[in-house]
Each structure stands twice: as C-alpha cells, then as structure tokens.
Amino acid sequence: MANKPMTENELQHATEEQVLATGLNLKDVDESALGNPEPWESWETSLVLWSLVIGVGGLVVLGTLINLFLLSNH
C-alpha cells in the first residue's frame, strides 16, 4: 500500500512533535546554528574559488584558441 502524501497541517504537526521530542525549541536551534560555522567551511570556500579560477581560465584559453584557429580569416 502506498503512503499518501502529508497535508501541510500534518507536516507542521509532525515537525513540532520532532522538535519537542529533542527537548529544544526552534529559536535555540536557529541561534546555535548561526554561531558555529561548518568545520569544512574554509576548505569548501577554497574549492569554490579554485573552481571559478579554473573555469574562467579555461574560458579564456578556449576562447582564444577558437578565435585563432576557427574564426580567423586566412
């Protein structure tokens, strides 16, 4: 038997029950999450920056090669 999808009210009620079961309220969870960065944040930031540099560099190199070999008039 397939599970029927939850209505918005049922989902809200289930979420409130899960929060109450943990003994925390949503305000405490939000405030604690803001003060603690993820442990891999610096690594993730450097990965994104390297990816952007490599992507832009690749665009410049490929654009130059296409301009020289495919679009030149000789």
Describe, in plain words, how this protein is organized in 3D:
- By secondary structure, the chain is mainly alpha-helical.
- The chain has a domain at 41-74.
- 73% of the residues lie in helices and 0% in strands.
- The chain contains three helices and no strands.
- The protein has helices at residues 8-22, 26-35, 41-69.
- The longest helix has 29 residues, at 41-69.
- The N and C termini lie far apart (70 Å).
- The mean pLDDT is 78.
Count every helix, treating DSSP H or I runs of 4 or more residues as helices. 3
Backbone structural class: mainly alpha
Largest sheet: none
Strand content: under 5%
- Let me know the average pLDDT: 78
Q: How does the overall form come out from the CA principal axes?
A: elongated
Q: Which range best describes the helical content: under 10%, 10-25%, 25-40%, 40-55%, 55-70% or over 70%?
A: over 70%
Radius of gyration: 25 Å
Q: Can you tell me the residue ranges where pLDDT is under 50 for at least 5 consecutive residues?
A: none
Instruction: State the distance separating the first and last CA atoms.
Output: 70 Å
Oligomeric nature of the chains = single chain
User: SSE order, as H and E?
Assistant: HHH
Total E-strand runs: 0
Give keywords.
74 residues, mainly alpha, 3 helices
Write the layout of secondary structure elements.
Blueprint: H1 8-22, H2 26-35, H3 41-69
